[in-house]
């Protein structure tokens, strides 16, 4: 992937003038209108198939049509680049499902900018590399986490294990440019503005229109009079072209959510174009934050905002500068593509799941990365050489033909996955959780089950709830449950015990990088909380809706319904 994308910008810059020159040459040579005739003849004298309104691809070319079309100055294949007979490759077809966006966008106006580029990495001295490699024991790296990547049948699965326990699992379909679009940037067209909802529906080229709320709209204060923050109908108009980024994938019947505040993530920093944003991760110690602030004072572009990530701890000024320059160059390419593209167009595509995780999470706490697909392994290793050269040796190829067991079976991922997809989760003490999803929220019921305790009811309930709080946090992270969540703990009479359970839940959730908000536990033992929802959860990734009950989980007795009210009739 990195080998193919490094010169993408130069290739695009060079291709457009050559196409314009060919069109100009044909006009000057008197060959007529450079556009193809609306119904060019086929080789047998009959008219060829005429494109219809709504076609996403050129009409099929008939045999022999290329010879006749060359003579009248038309395009030789209905989608080529000129009369020289060369077939131009359909742009936007590289990467995740390019060219699937209803025949518009990236395929019609140039390839989208890719997040992964073949940029040179700095040569680090041996002392720095040794410090960043992390701990080893008997020549083997040790760490808290293990990443397993399994590729097959057009699906990539990524499992994160802490010790032997599965704590995160993600399913990605790389060819899906309609549902897995989080982080993508689009040249979009406003379809309609709804003042009553303070939102606008925006066409980004996906099957469902995306939604842009008033709080996510960026505006120029000089263009708006009166209010400090204008109403949405003042800032946006129907048919207006805007640049927007997806912050939430389409879920069920809801379209994607957008923002006009673009952010381009790198390994060490996040670039916020045309912004004054300035920040450093709060997870870093105070001394490191001061060092990074002094570096940013020298490197921060005047026209862009910068947010420093946790991964920047201990990195050099040159590495941060290289990351900023790469992201600024990406934004320049995005703006250039937007100027010459029609809406809707995919301008920037986030990389596939495994590359995103390597970019944002991979550090020396990982004892290894195992990948069971040779091509993916080589791409990931090449990418890691640029962003984390000290950790490249921790990435290994798991050969499914050489190993006696498949990767997930070898590390008991499949066994834990099946338990995760079950609504009921057993606790070690004998208690249980029951997790149910509804349209509005997710409900988790805590039960003592087989846990009968030893001394008193209050102590038994407290111990059960503390164990459940830890498991609830793990299940939310593993199942990727988001939105509103209500947890029904077993009732506790002592207020101090309720505070202990709430504190244990917050402590367990602090290890989850997804943003959460937890409210105090009520006298009924209920905890209300929210967890940021980006896409569909793990259960939706592994299942489909039942055609008979339409996901309700019940089948009505039609014979009983047909006879209802008929009992007792003569």
Structure explained in plain terms:
With 570 residues, the chain is of the alpha+beta class. The protein is built from 16 helices and 24 strands. It has helices at 2-5, 8-28, 65-71, 106-109, 126-132, 232-235, 286-299, 317-339, 353-360, 374-387, 407-410, 413-420, 457-479, 495-509, 538-542, 558-562; strands at 113-114, 136-137, 140-141, 145-152, 155-162, 165-172, 185-194, 199-203, 210-213, 241-248, 257-259, 264-265, 269-273, 278-280, 304-308, 345-349, 366-371, 395-397, 424-426, 432-437, 441-447, 483-488, 516-518, 526-531. Strands 1, 7, 8, 9, 10, 11 and 16 form a seven-stranded mixed beta sheet that branches. Helix 9 (353-360) runs parallel beside helix 10 (374-387) and helix 13 (457-479) runs parallel beside helix 14.
What are the main properties of this structure?
7-stranded mixed sheet; globular; 6-stranded mixed sheet; 24 strands; disordered N terminus; 21% strand; 570 residues; alpha+beta
What percent of the residues sit in helical stretches (DSSP H or I)?
A: 25-40%
Q: What is the tally of helical segments? A: 16
Would you report the number of β strands?
Answer: 24
In whole angstroms, the N-to-C terminal distance is 78 Å
Short overview:
The chain has about 575 residues and is α+β, with helices and mostly antiparallel strands. Helix content is about 30%, strand content about 20%. α9 (about 355-360) packs parallel to α10 (about 375-385) and α13 packs parallel to α14 (about 495-510).
């Amino acid at each position: 992937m990195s080998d193919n994308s490094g010169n993408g910008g130069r290739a695009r810059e060079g291709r457009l003038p050559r196409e314009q020159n060919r069109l100009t040459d044909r006009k000057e040579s008197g060959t007529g209108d450079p556009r193809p005739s609306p119904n060019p003849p086929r080789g047998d004298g009959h008219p060829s198939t005429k494109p219809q309104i709504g076609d996403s691809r050129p009409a099929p070319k008939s045999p022999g049509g290329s010879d006749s079309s060359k003579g009248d100055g038309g395009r030789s294949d209905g989608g080529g680049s000129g009369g020289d007979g060369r077939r131009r490759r359909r742009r936007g077809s590289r990467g995740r499902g390019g060219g699937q966006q209803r025949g518009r966008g990236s395929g019609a106006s140039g390839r989208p900018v890719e997040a992964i580029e073949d940029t040179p990495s700095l040569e680090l001295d041996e002392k720095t590399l040794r410090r960043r490699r992390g701990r080893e024991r008997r020549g083997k790296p040790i760490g808290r986490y293990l990443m397993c990547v399994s590729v097959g049948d057009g699906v990539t699965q990524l499992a994160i294990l802490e010790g032997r326990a599965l704590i995160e699992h993600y399913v990605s379909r790389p060819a899906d440019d309609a549902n897995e679009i989080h982080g993508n940037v689009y040249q979009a067209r406003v379809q309609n503005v709804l003042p009553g909802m303070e939102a606008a529906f925006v066409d980004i080229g996906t099957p469902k229109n995306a939604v842009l709320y008033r709080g996510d709209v960026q505006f120029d204060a000089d263009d708006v009079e009166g209010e400090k923050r204008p109403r949405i109908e003042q800032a946006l108009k129907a048919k207006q072209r805007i640049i927007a980024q997806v912050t939430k994938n389409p879920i069920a019947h809801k379209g994607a959510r957008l923002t006009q505040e673009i952010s381009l993530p790198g390994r060490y920093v996040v670039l916020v174009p045309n912004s004054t944003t300035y920040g450093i991760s709060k997870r870093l110690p105070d001394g490191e934050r001061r060092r990074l602030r002094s570096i940013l004072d020298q490197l921060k572009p005047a026209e862009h905002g910068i947010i420093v990530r946790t991964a920047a701890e201990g990195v050099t000024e040159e590495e941060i500068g290289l990351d900023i320059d790469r992201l600024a160059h990406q934004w320049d390419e995005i703006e250039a593509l937007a100027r010459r593209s029609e809406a809707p167009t995919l301008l920037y595509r986030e990389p596939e799941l495994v590359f995103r995780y390597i970019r944002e999470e991979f550090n020396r706490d990982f004892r290894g990365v195992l990948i069971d697909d040779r091509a993916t392994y080589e791409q990931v290793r090449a990418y890691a050489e640029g962003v984390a050269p000290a950790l490249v040796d921790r990435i290994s190829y798991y050969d499914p033909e050489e190993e006696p067991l498949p990767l997930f079976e070898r590390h008991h991922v499949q066994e834990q996955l099946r338990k995760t997809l079950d609504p009921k989760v057993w606790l070690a003490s004998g208690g249980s959780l029951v997790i149910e999803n509804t349209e509005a929220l997710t409900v988790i019921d805590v039960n003592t089950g087989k846990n009968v305790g030893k001394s008193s009811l209050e102590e038994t309930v407290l111990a059960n709830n503390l164990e459940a709080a830890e498991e609830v946090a793990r299940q939310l992270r593993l199942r990727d449950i988001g939105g509103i969540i209500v947890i029904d703990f077993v009732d506790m009479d002592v207020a101090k015990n309720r505070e202990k359970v709430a504190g244990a839940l917050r402590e367990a959730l602090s290890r989850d990088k997804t943003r959460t908000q937890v409210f105090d536990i009520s006298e009924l033992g209920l905890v209300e909380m929210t967890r940021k929802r980006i896409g569909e959860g793990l259960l939706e990734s592994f299942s489909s809706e039942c055609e008979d009950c339409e996901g309700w989980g019940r089948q009505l007795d039609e014979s009983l319904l047909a006879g209802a009210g008929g009992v007792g009739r003569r």
